[in-house]
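Inputs:
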Amino acid sequence: MDARLKVRNTKSIIFKSVIVFLAFVITIPLIIILLYIIKQGVTQVNWHFLTHVPAPVGETGGGISNALVGSIIIVALSSIIAIPVGILAGIYLSENANTRLAYYSGLCVDILQGVPSIVVGMVVYFWVVKPLGTFSALSGSVALAIMMLPIVIRSTEQTLKLLPDSLKEAALSLGVPYHRVILKIIVPCGFAGILSGIMLSVARIIGETAPLLFTAFGNPYLSAAITKPMQSLPLLIFNYATSPYDEWHNLAWGASFILLMFVLLLNIFTKLITRKWNIQL
Amino acid sequence: MKHKRLDLSYSQLRWETVFKRILWIMSAILLVLVIGILATLIVQSMPSIKSLGIKFLWGKIWDPVNNIYGAYPFLIGTILTSFTALIISIPFSYAIAIYLGEYNPKGWLSNLLKNTIELIAAVPSVIYGFWGLSVLVPIIRVFEAKIGVAPYGVGVFTSSLVLAVMIIPYAASLGTSLIRMVPSPLKEGAYALGATRFEVIRSVILPYTRSGLFAGILLSLGRALGETMAVAMLIGNTSAIAHSIKDAFFGPGNTMASVIANEFTEADHTVYLSALIELGLVLFVVTVIINLIGKKIIMSYTNN
Amino acid sequence: MKVLKSLQFAVVALAANCLALSASAQDNTLLGAGSTFVYPLFSKIFAEYGKTHDVKVNYQSIGSGGGILQLTNKTVDFGGSDAPLNAEQAKKIGAPVLHIPMASGAVVITYNIPGFNGALKLTGKDLADIYLGKITNWNNPEIAAANKGVKLPDVPIVVVHRSDGSGTSFIFTDYLTKVNEEWAKKVGKASAVNWPAGLGGKGNEGVAGLVKQTPGAIGYNELAYAIQNKMPYASVQNKSGKFITPTLATTTASSNVELPPNAEVSLTNTDNPKGYPITSFTWALIYKDQKYSDRSAARAKMLLQLMWYNIHEGQKNCEPLNYAPLSKSALKVAEKLLKSATYGGKAIL
């Protein structure tokens, strides 16, 4: 009897150690990757690197200002497209959970969440690039906006569903019109949740490369024209990482480092917001 | 005076309907978007569907010069990379889910681990690809030379390794929250009968969460199938079918997503281009089905 | 379908709004795409051009096939290609296209043979047989026959080729098609072919990386790249039976031919006894009539001026990057071609 108990206990302990080992060992690759990027990238980054465009082949120096500015513009533009649509659709889904449209829209959000990013890029090529007759930052933004939508919608919907109905009912009983109840009371109450959803979605799309391959296309110059091709950080990393030149590899390491910092900061901010307002996402 | 107030409430009323209509439109846009994506893919792949028919799916040769297009090499490549990655990742994602869900659900260490795992999903895939290309590939090359296969470095195996790490968070975070949702009376009952921790996990928690954990795996699989950049940088991009299983596993290959990324801007025949779009259509349909099944399982699980 | 149309409409409407926003942005950028072969040269020339002119040229190296496709779709101002348009491409593009020669370059055969550091000699036939998978070992008597006095080891050959569509592949397969009938019948020439043997590397990086790291490997790269990466490259037998090492001089010798008026000429397997046989022009492709879509005359002029600069002042960048500059006769043909470009029927230059 005692012996069997011992066996069972040992089994339990062994199982626990295996679980603990597996759970923690998988963080090692991530740490290695992060440290490697930081090690390779941090030495590249300086003022010159941030304010100059890449040098042509065979010349040293140069920077990634075109990609930096491009990424910011493209992401800002996608936010302008996706955030209003996303929040409003999220409101609809939380307010009218039981309509048939809400059911199908919810289904579509699930579908959009799972669409491979490369497929989005391909479709946007036919929607925007071909009709406009040129690759453009705008087409890249449309593609990224489609990637952003599901995250913004879901976070808005989840946050608003958590708010007590009494809030809305109190306001409505005071005679406040519906749209003001939503815009002035419900949305501000759920603001933190919506904001963290937006930041999460930005963190996700800022590193997306595949949808930009056939849309934003890349540009070796600093450009702010949204109807023209534009460089972005992930595109630059992809192009220069697969190039045969060491100087360009260095630019790509520096760009990776900057991109990583963006993503990390956005994630940390999101964490802080969700912790402060105690939101479950 | 009275008139004015009436006007005001009329305008408010009008705004109310306008606002409601806007909400309705915004949500309808989603339907239009998804149907639009599907329609675009179908319309644009029509030339290839018409000229190649269903044969396309198991055609073994991808030869743009002679206008022969078969998706088989990419289907095989996609399935091979995704499932290898999945098999590698499952022990880890289960371990994380069990650790965070049962052994250590609270406290700084669990928080740290949870945030670190979430960070894995946050790192852009192009960075995984770049790192893999410059660090992992030379290591794999040495390894391959040792075990006696052609030392390409890049290939299905390498991309599966990177992919495995990338998809862990999806199954892990879902698994964690599901395990935390196991009702404590069930567990307490088992403990009261004298079960050890391991026995509780094996006979109570895992059976209870089985379908949910499976859904998590499906979500991971959906990610793996559609992942593009890291794979395109690491898989070696060969459309030919390997001669032996060893070659297929360690040698270079191509997935549906990576071939689209490589060749979409280069496809200069009508059929070539639309064959690539048809690959995108297949990819879209498959990932949508997998994701929807996963979501359905989660829904039914959380509702009960 | 209807949904699709309305969606397109909505997107275009949105785009139009944004267009108005960015209308103030200056329109002094030209967009080109295509050949990776010429990319180092173009990026240098265009950087130089930008210093003295108020024009920014955005050239993306997406592959020759891609350049032609994007020109067909009118999404770029010019395409870069190492292969002239084929019949189907010409039909699809629907309007006359000018092939302006920019420079010529060599595709070299790089190798990694353990225990052998000498200069490898290859005949066209051997090369085709290697890439057909018929010669599979470095100690094959056929290779030994070309390399008298050299002992090649008993090592299996690992064939490496480009996996992406590439002008480099076109030049290489064009050469093999000319020298080997079996290759012509079985595989043919194109920027992406169905390779009978070997493994693919993406881009030059991929091919060079594989060749460098894989004992017994053979691959092909452009000359500039092989030199930069200090890789050994083979002498290839030309039509006159001489083994020629690829250099700037032998490339120039091959490219020194009488060009037809449309400049569409293949340089591979040259008749020149001093010429390296795997050589090719690289072309910039532009529409003959620049008045299409809603292009302005100023934009057409800007493009033509850039092309003019490329074939004149730009040529001084060729030699440092191991491209052969245009010969005098080629330059004449190029000038004539540029002068034939029109805008709504009127000459531009």
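The first helix of chain A runs from residue 2 to 25. Flag for discussion at group meeting.
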